[in-house]
Amino acid sequence: MVRIEKLYFDLEEITERWELRKHDLAYMAENDELKVSVRLYTVRLEEGIYERDTRDGQPHRIPFDQSWFSGLQDLTACDAHKVFHHGQAPVVQFDAPGDAYVEIIEPTAAVVVQLRQLVVRREERDRIERDRKPLPRPATGEAEILKHSRDYRHVQLGELSLTLGRMQARIVRQLHRAGRTGDGWCSGKVVLAEAGSASKRMQDVFKSQPRWRELIESDRHGHYRLRVETR
Q1: Strand ranges, E, within 2-58
Q2: pLDDT at residue 54 greater than cutoff 70
Q3: What are the DSSP E strand ranges found in 75-199?
């Protein structure tokens, strides 16, 4: 098997890894919690800083570099919002720290960025995963014990009460049994296959259960277990 170390990932890869939907990524991007990027090819860029004039109080640009650029640039939260909600948007200026700016200049025209072109840098993916770790499993004695019907169609975990479909019930049964014989972590693909599911993603099976993540936790690497104490 050939493995490559990718420097960036498309949105499908990120949503699958984080088990989120695109509208969740949109929320994060437009609230400046996630930087999304676009790959540019031979675009004329100007970089500089804004400096406020002490006479009129207005910011003035001080450019320090103009060059042809190919590579990744991060979108501003405003432009990310437009792309996510309208499918595309013309972009002239890119995200820059502090008083800096990065902007397209002539002879290059504004770049029309489409939703399918958005990517997330590896370092940005890793930053989010460091900052937003999965909820820790409570220590034994603090975790809730799962109560369930014989067929697992009805389960209760503390104040959480769910009525599950047959496929969902099969999966919960498998995870519950796995927790009794080990640490409970199971490959999602294996669990889905053994349950007879045609779906390849756990979130697709449980999309009718908005609170399913309060019952099942993920290590974000394709493994799942119940948030319960087994004894």
Answers
A1: 8-10, 37-52
A2: no
A3: 88-91, 93-94, 100-104, 111-114, 119-121, 147-148, 154-157, 160-163, 186-187
pLDDT in tens, 165-199: 999 999 999 999 888 877 788 999 999 999 999 88
Structure tokens at 18: 């984080």
Question: Residue 214 gets which letter from DSSP?
Answer: G
Tell me, what's the pLDDT at 5? 84
Measured CA to CA, the distance from residue 7 to residue 230 in angstroms comes to 41
- DSSP characters for 49-111? EEEE-TTT--EEEEEEEEEEEEEEEEPPHHHHHHHHHHSEEEE-EE--STTEEEEE-TTSPPE
User: How long is the chain?
Assistant: 231
Euclidean distance between CA atoms 35 and 95, whole angstroms = 9
> Residue 16: exposed, middle, or buried by beta-carbon count in 10 A (0-12, 13-18, 19+)?
middle
Return the H-helix or E-strand segment holding 223.
strand 223-226
116 CB-near residues (< 8 Å, 6+ apart): 10
Summarize pLDDT for 25-42 with one digit per residue, the tens.
999 999 999 999 999 999
